[in-house]
Amino acid sequence: MPDTDRVYLISGARPLGGDPVDLLVADGRIADTGTGLAVPEGAETVDADGLIALPGLVDLHTHLREPGREDAETVATGSRAAAMGGYTAVHAMANTDPVADTAGVVEQVWRLGREAGYCDVYPVGAVTTGLAGANLAEIGAMADSAAGVRVFSDDGKCVSDALLMRRALEYVRAFDGVIAQHAQEPRLTEGAQMNEGCVSDRLGLPGWPAVAEEAIIARDCLLAQHVGSRLHVCHVSTRGSVDIIRWAKARGCDVTAEVTPHHLLLTDDLVEGYDPVYKVNPPLRTADDVRALREGLADGTIDIVATDHAPHPVEAKETEWSTAAMGMVGLETALAVVQETMVDTGLLTWAQVADRMSAAPARIGRVTGHGRALAPGEPANVVLYDPAAPVEADGAAMATKSSNTPFRGMTLPGRVRATFLRGVPTVLEGKIS
Amino acid sequence: MRHLLSSGDLTRDEATLILDTAAELARVSDRSVKKLPTLRGRTVVNLFYEDSTRTRTSFELAAKRLSADVINFSAKGSSVSKGESLKDTALTLQAMGADGVVIRHSASGAPHRLSHWVDGSVLNAGDGTHEHPTQALLDAFTMRSRMGRLEGLRVAVVGDITHSRVARSNVLLLTTLGAHVTLVAPPTLLPVSVHTWPCEVSYHLDDVLPKSDVAMMLRVQNERMHESYFPSVREYSRNYGLDAERLACMPPDAVVMHPGPMVRGVEVSAEVADSPRCTVTEQVANGVSVRMAVLYLLLGGS
Questions:
Q1: Which end of chain A is more exposed for a tag (fewer CB within 10 A), N or C?
Q2: Is B34 known to be catalytic?
């Protein structure tokens, strides 16, 4: 890692897409902003002409796979991928092996993140022991641990038992925690392989109906409002889900929601060739769902973009569709996909992108050092992004240990040039430093 | 045509060519020496991940009648049961110089995946709940032989449509060939998007039979009976089974087809199964001719 005492002058960057200014970075903070700042002695100048400056991105939904599946990803490789994608903080999901359902495991992940040093790793704690959906995990111990867990999720599995979900929602209120629900009614999705609709019927693959997601979201919104707790909905994927969340927010439910980059861009007809690189949970949906998700993210019904970065080794995808693993890598392509689907379409400004990908996820995760303004005195967590640098996505060239990107072969509109974590460049000139 | 993965891949001309070729090859089966030298020196692998003696035997006989070398690679008792991946099996077959691979697999789309890993032709012999194109071809061949035409023919396909690869392949192929298909099933056994398919749909067998030239009865799998797709086997049979009384409501020259194996007393009564209007054994015989035609057209060219 580079020298932490170094002073950087980022010249000509456009904060939140606005007019070009210089940013002086010293002692881990933004020391000054303005035009034509003098270069202090010994400072390194970073030419950011034409680049967008955003607060370091915060991912509320990342699978780092360690402990247990270090063949797919480690905290070190995953946090390097995060830095390459412009992230300065990621929330590591609990479905590791062993499951992150004790203070010991979350502290291990937290410590591995600090040792790697590429971004802040905030472990997510399991809601139920072993993700088994039967008994509450030691949520309080995880909250009080060095990792200071605030987000709890059985992601990969739904907390489908309504009473258990109620208890979890109530319990985490004691330390301002949030339950991040993977909304999937289990009986309606037994053996499900892809979105249920025209394509699944033609391909003869068991369907994952939209109602299986929507029914759980509706139930959880009602539960959360009843007990006065915070609910976060993971990877919203259908038009009906957007409608339900919009309705729940209107009636005062404290619910937040996320959408993944892949659900903003890709549709279920990609499954036609049975290539499992397109297999993900929840599944890719229809073009109409994609439209609704974009509208929902634009009008604030959906609060944030979260990657659901899910690395898998080659052999887990180079197989028959039905035996292949579900999931896609996404940390290194997220910002470019959001540019393509939301900014270039006129649905979001860069300032709103900063909200959806940095400020709002930091708020939901109760992460105080991230998602801040690009202003003097704030921690220097900054990403410099070139929105006019088309690049073909290539899993083999990525920092993640896995290569299962559904965007491979697609040309995405931009790329991250630099990422600063508390004043230290983790990425410079598009390369890990 | 390099592979046969889906009936939907066939144009009307290609499908007709297969049926015409099958008709010519059928004459070989009538000779005392039932063998042609066409595929001498070519290797056909039967790669069967599901037990299906009848389909495997049919492909084996078809390949042998064309003088191909046939290898039966069964998932049981091979390295597959030790956990070898489909890709590694494919690379093994490739290394052995397979010119054609006939694959039966419980996973929908397995033949598509295989086609990326081998240079030879891939023939889908039934994949999961997706397709079974040679079954549809032999069904079309049988209808054409019996009824003299396919254009305008009215075909009712009755039973578990959702989980049937035979139904999917038949809807695609018969539509391509100009027949009119009506799917008949309780709503629980119809795909949710069936209204977008190029066919009619009915929940009432008795409404459809008088207007049908062919009734194709599908087997009801044992496992459906315990998953609440219908209340009981008896109720299913009452509403969707074909017995002599219902057969009498069909046009006098109408035929009853079944891809086999039949469950007598459920989808067809014994009386109907044994009636001369039931084409089950003809279908089996025609299966060999149609598979010979497909192997010949896929592998005979170079």
A1: N
A2: no
Question: B56: which 2 tokens?
Answer: 């495997």
Please report which confidence band the pLDDT of residue A5 belongs to, taking 50, 70 and 90 as the band edges.
Answer: confident
Phi/psi at A365 (5° precision): -85, 0
- Are the beta carbons of A69 and A92 closer than 8 angstroms? no
Q: Give the residue numbers spanning the domain of B235.
A: 133-279
Probe site for chain B from A203, A208, A211, A317 (most B CB atoms < 10 A): A203
pLDDT higher than threshold 90 for residue A4: no
The span from the CA of A225 to the CA of A203, in Å, is: 40
B196: nearest CB among A198, A204, A205: A198
Q: A42 and A60 share a domain? A: no
Q: Identify the band that residue B188 occupies on the pLDDT scale cut at 50, 70 and 90.
A: very high
Global pTM reads 0.96
The per-residue DSSP string of B58-111 comes to HHHHHHHHTT-EEEEEESTTSGGGGT--HHHHHHHHHHTT-SEEEEEESSTTHH
Buried/exposed code over B227-252 (b: 16+ C-beta within 10 A; e: otherwise):
eebbeebeebbeebbbeeebbeebee
Q: Are A198 and B86 within 8 A, CB to CB? A: no
Q: Is A197 on the interface with B (CB under 8 A)?
A: yes
Share of chain B above pLDDT 90, in %: 86
CB of A22 within 8 Å of a chain B CB? The answer is: no
- Looking at chain A, which residue has its C-alpha nearest residue B193? A198
A315 touches B at CB < 8 Å? yes
Q: What is the CATH number of the domain that holds A21?
A: 2.30.40.10
For residue B105, the chain A residues in CB contact (below 8 A) are 320
Is the same domain home to B62 and B191? no
Mean pLDDT, to the nearest integer, of B219-228? Answer: 84
Q: Model confidence over A13-64: pLDDT tens digits?
A: 999 999 999 999 999 999 999 999 999 999 999 999 999 999 999 999 999 9
Mean pLDDT of B104-117: 96
- Structural domain count, chain A: 2
Confidence check: pLDDT of A372 > 60: yes
Q: Measured between CB atoms, does A288 come within 8 Å of chain B?
A: no
- Is position A370 within any domain? no
* A347 and A394 housed in the same domain: no
Nearest-CB residue to A322 (from B85, B108, B191): B108
Inter-chain residue contact B108 with A321, CB threshold 8 Å: yes
The two structure tokens encoding residue A241: 């889900």
Give the range of the structural domain holding residue A206, as residue numbers without chain letter. 56-364
A206 contacts in chain B (CB < 8 Å):
129
Q: What ipTM did this prediction achieve? A: 0.94
Pairing of strands A151-152, A120-123: unpaired
Q: CA dihedral in degrees (A214, A217, A220, A225; nearest 10)? A: -110
Tokens of A135: 């008994």
Q: Is residue A350 part of a domain?
A: yes
Q: What's residue B79's pLDDT?
A: 58
Ranking A410-414, A417-421, B27-31, B181-185 by mean pLDDT, the lowest is B27-31
- Inter-chain residue contact A204 with B131, CB threshold 8 Å: yes
DSSP secondary structure letters along A143-202: HHSTT---EE--TTS----HHHHHHHHHHGGGGT-EEEE----TGGGTT--EESSHHHHH
Pick the more confident residue, B51 or A44. A44
